[in-house]
Amino acid sequence: MKSIKVNLGRRSYYIVIGSGAIRCLSGLLRRYLLGYDNAYVVTNAYLYKKYGSLLINTFKAAGIGIKVRLVPDDEKAKSLAVAGSLLGDIAVFSKSRRVFIVAFGGGVIGDLAGFVAAVFRRGIPYIQIPTTLLAQVDSSIGGKTAVDLRQGKNLVGAFYQPRLVVSDTDFLKSLSLRERRSALAEIIKYGLIKDRSLFVYLERSLRAVLGLKSKALAFIVRRASKIKAQIVSADEREEKGLRTSLNFGHTIGHAIEAAGGFTRYNHGEAIALGMLVSSEISLRLKLITPLVFARIERLIGKAGLPVKIKGLKLNDIIRAHYHDKKFVGAKNRFVLLEGIGRFRVQENVPEELILRAVRQRM
Amino acid sequence: MKSIKVNLGRRSYYIVIGSGAIRCLSGLLRRYLLGYDNAYVVTNAYLYKKYGSLLINTFKAAGIGIKVRLVPDDEKAKSLAVAGSLLGDIAVFSKSRRVFIVAFGGGVIGDLAGFVAAVFRRGIPYIQIPTTLLAQVDSSIGGKTAVDLRQGKNLVGAFYQPRLVVSDTDFLKSLSLRERRSALAEIIKYGLIKDRSLFVYLERSLRAVLGLKSKALAFIVRRASKIKAQIVSADEREEKGLRTSLNFGHTIGHAIEAAGGFTRYNHGEAIALGMLVSSEISLRLKLITPLVFARIERLIGKAGLPVKIKGLKLNDIIRAHYHDKKFVGAKNRFVLLEGIGRFRVQENVPEELILRAVRQRM
User: Fold this and answer.
1) CB A155 to CB B120 under 8 A?
2) Which of A214, A270, A296, B337 could serve as A265's disulfide partner, Cβ 3.0–4.6 Å?
3) Which residue of A has its CA nearest to B117?
């Protein structure tokens, strides 16, 4: 089993990746959560039905007591109300026990359970066992936890690192094609901002990845996790601008997601479109060549991700873009490309240019 | 105006103390919150009636926009529901503004507003303007923020440091005698664990303190703040055991507070009784002399704080004590005295001894 370290001094932790990684859990818990003898597992009914007995047996074998809490299988679970209900539950469960939290699921469950762990008694340990490709390569790493408010997504949260991430690629085999494709958007992103060879690998081996070949899955999860771990290690709380690179495609991507009411395009599809817009801006600013742009557009298309924005109005996207203020102090801030594997952060991109780049996709 | 630094690297901040300190706010904001131009002020109706126009004028003079949010004037304000309501409010208020939060009030408001600042967008700046003696010498310093659950007090929170604490001792002049006395318990605590000369000062100048003489107030707030700042600087997150000393009198104190349903004794009164129990244990373990014990009991009595537990059952106190687990891994943990100004942490104090020491106070 391969492992990758997230270097954060006393808050460092490992990401253990591979087919069957969950079978190492017992040893890992003894090593990284010594003395914590009860697990409060947050998951959903679908996953519990599928993997419940595996989980129970795994924790039992490790001598760990377990309490399972099911939450809704969608963004609705990321509310203060659900968080409050979990917190009350944990208050009772932890009365005479040393409890840690287990986030067993995708990004929604990771964000919610991580937030609950961050604030219960000002922080108790938690581990991430991501079951989706998107969670394995992105949200489970880096300690960004959050719940939503009626007023907007992820408005309430904390930076709070897990003690351990276990990415068992076998969990990925039951993902739908749309989920796999959506996750690929983030993996393509890592290639574009930081890892040319990952991008080239995807160009060559897309079929194996989408076909869920074990080796291919383990390879891309490892590469993507490594990049995310490096960036988080260098800029834990997004204070140094390094973590900004992870927003490549996200500025416009979020706007597209929001303009579609979070239903028309899922996160990965919106990010794919956002990356194309940012690449278009990079091209028009002559930061990349038409050939590089063509390769990006081709890979995104081959991955089965959208290359055209359909059914949305330009105005709605632009309005949502100005609502999603990731750029305090400047008019806007874009992560642009200087080539495959190289990014730059650019503030105050001319509005005319943004408009044209978005319109190009419609 | 005197100021004390809390040394926490990039999270360092100043506590500005003295009569009329609030008049320095404008300059302080320019210095420590540059670029934040809107204040979301959390306070209660009583304080707003008394100091609302002062606040509004002060922020106006500093060129800062202001939105005031009133919360209930008691522990009820420290709920997830109230926090959620504030968070929604701030989400709207901060849409096109750079907002910081102002906790204007006592410990309840500080804990609530600090928690909201900690989790809104994973942390926005906040300042503390404590208006009670207890908040000035204790809760406003150190970044312990929290709200309550039905299952227990302070179960949900974060360590999150303010950018600035402004302790204007003029606010203390409207405190009731009971509030002043209650706060004295924590100040006596600082003397007992860390500052013999503060204890001696209180023995000599108690009348000036209770009589709200400006010089005496400024002196004790400064001394107590300095001790709290030192301890927090050395052990921000209670990981090194140093901050444990601040729990002197609190283990049994909390149990007395809880056994009385949080109404019979207020926090300071319960802590006074808890300090006497811990001093009694210290005496019986021959860590302090009968003379030292007598001085402690005399000062607490002279301060108008209770020296006997009335109307509570021994069993209720003991049960509440075991419910309030600040001591994972050991049977119990007490901060004991080795003299005035010197403490030690002792685990596994014999139960018989605890029982006797509590019974001695009944």
Assistant:
1) yes
2) A270
3) A156
